[in-house]
């Protein structure tokens, strides 16, 4: 049983989805989805533990050995991401029932959980598989279910947002497919480890170079890397609030994983070092993303949208870490992937709680809520402090590592640009804090605190932000080992 | 485990426990204030016990936990820390006593939040005072900025919100943009952040890098209010007077200069500091700040604003003293922390007492007030003498040492600056009590009879005024403490 964990990780939510359909709608479907997601999280945690102590797990699907059969390969990198994705799914699902009750019609709620589990299965599949074509298959599963989830949003604009994301996402997925196809033409294999062995001998060929370019652009679209980010603010702000919580904490992280996987373990290192100056491109795009998105966030009236822009900025930081490179740069990125999932989930969870009670998350509608919903409002403050990078929160650890990486590489201007970026975060977080606590509400009708399950989920996340700002052994040691393995194992 | 060293934990946790009590009894004001007072007296007793153990040559150090590899949250008692810890813990119960009179006399709202945030700020001050390394100091430095923000914006008005924005913007902005990178670079260069006698930088560290770090530190520690990053202090004056008294004349600003002394003496080391050419420029910048702030203070009609600029000027004395990089200068600076604290807190107490009793905040309207408030005005007179540095008050001693240090280093211009500023002190402080007692012909008496402030406030301001005088006649304990800053083994 234990040896089958890599595939169970994916199969469980994949089979859970149709089962959820049978269970109908309402609470039962919710409980079932929550159970499936929790089990997935337990499997992911077990996998991470096993990989950390006993090394890489390779699982041959159906007993067909790689490179002929499909291999599921779990190393520290994807085990780490599996925990993040399944964890954020579980904590969002915990709050989902109370949140969607006000946003989604009852007859669609069952389908909502089906789409959710499919999306989870797709994301986990992308992470777990060691087969390039499988990546595409799971990417489509997760993307299609994501479009569905977004289109379930409360306003009619959500259909438009989902459609725009569908167009952009499909272009991205097609690019990735073309890239994978080109690689298959040149090497005759789809297994990642096998590709890594065979690609260097074909690295002179323009076909492989084209494959590399297609894949990079395709992934960057899914990652919402500047300037391919235009779909993200609409999709995040129009989706049901709890879907935004889940997607912000997981979807872009998976795309980032693909970026790391393709540049570090599959393609020969001369591609990213000599043929195109990828490191410089990453740093430059990252910086532009940080500043343009942070400034855009400052001017948003709709706060879900502001925080969505902040996600684009934070993706910028992660890409900067990749661009700085080395073990420390990669480690900074991997730590920030985890911490960013924590802080963004906290922020969007608090906004989801507010949306349930007052039906909007515009700056004016949130005025004076600090008095009326103190527990929920504090969640936004705590997530915001972590985002700014105040000591004793997870965000501080991210910033420490990113700045250390930049300073150690001797890139002084970068050090100050990174820190200037977090000053912008103070501005867009604080205008919300001021609205929450210093403005008095337009109408003085009493507002209740967010529903209990949402508060529990929110406070678990707040405690997570504080805990991982103080006891950093888990993210620091795992990210270090993972980064060292990636840098050493580079073909 | 050393039980005396555990007292450090108790010192930091006592105010935190008080917070729990304050929140628990938010509906019973008498009990709530009693808890604050008891916690204050307990904290003073703990600090006195630490002081006596330290004098017996005991090494007191505590390690809490490792936040990042090699970076601990740890504490250690040394002479400078004791000085700061004793001053803060002596003045906390007195300020609480004063606050009871002031807050009730003024019918302020949200008193529970006020006392709770106040206690958290004191806990942060204790942690800063006894921090063993720069990392620990930085963490609680940021905590102090954040927990005093609700105190600054206490009134909740538009003006308070603006003041809070400037306050947090400058303090957080400088600490993120300058202080944090300086710490990270120091960590990368020196491999440690522990405060050590003689500094931690290896000998071959390039002077250019040291100069950069020195500038970053001096501007990054904006709590020391070195111009041009001083604007937060006048902005913070919108807070209730007890906050201005303890936090913005003692705890927060002294945490700034205390950090600066710690960094310059135990991270750079005086020998290294003398070799850095840029320290001369900083010295003259601080000197210019001393005179400029005094000149601005003369033009302020609002009493609290005048006192705020006077504080900026006096903090400049401390910064100048350390930057001179001789032992007598550092000792003078350390003593000035204590003597200025006593003097300035008395002045703020008086300003608050006048506000409560007569609702006057402008100096021009205080003419002739000595008849109705003789005790307050006498205390004001004594404290003014101490700030100016005239006998028989404590300020004499610290100014004496600072002037000696300028002579010792042949900085005659700076000596002139310090003397000039003291003359300006006379010009902007003494007229206030003198015209209160001797209004001359333009005697102004209000239509309503004005009485002295509430007794709780009077007791507080008399005891600090008395302390100013006592410390002049019995300065030996203070001398002995500051002369141990450079003795072997500390920190």
From TrEMBL, chain A:
Domain NADH:quinone oxidoreductase/Mrp antiporter transmembrane: from-to ranges: 131-424
Membrane topology: Multi-pass membrane protein
PANTHER family, per database record: NA(+)_H(+) ANTIPORTER SUBUNIT D1 (PTHR42703:SF1), NADH DEHYDROGENASE (PTHR42703)
Protein localization: Cell membrane; Membrane
Family: Belongs to the CPA3 antiporters (TC 2.A.63) subunit D family.
Transmembrane segments: 6-24, 31-52, 77-98, 110-129, 135-153, 165-187, 207-230, 242-262, 274-299, 306-330, 342-363, 375-397, 409-430, 450-470
Superkingdom of the organism of origin: Bacteria
Primary subcellular site in the record, as a coarse category: membrane
Keywords: Cell membrane, Membrane, Transmembrane, Transmembrane helix
One Pfam family recorded for the sequence: Proton_antipo_M
Source organism of the structure: Zhongshania aquimaris
Protein name: Monovalent cation/H+ antiporter subunit D family protein
TrEMBL record, chain B:
One Pfam entry name: Proton_antipo_M
Transmembrane stretches, start-end: 6-25, 34-54, 79-100, 112-131, 137-154, 166-187, 207-226, 246-269, 281-298, 307-325, 337-357, 369-391, 411-434, 455-474
UniProt topology in membrane: Multi-pass membrane protein
Predominant place of localization: membrane
Organism superkingdom: Bacteria
Domain NADH:quinone oxidoreductase/Mrp antiporter transmembrane intervals: 131-423
Protein name, UniProt field: Monovalent cation/H+ antiporter subunit D family protein
Lineage: Bacteria, Pseudomonadati, Pseudomonadota, Gammaproteobacteria, Cellvibrionales
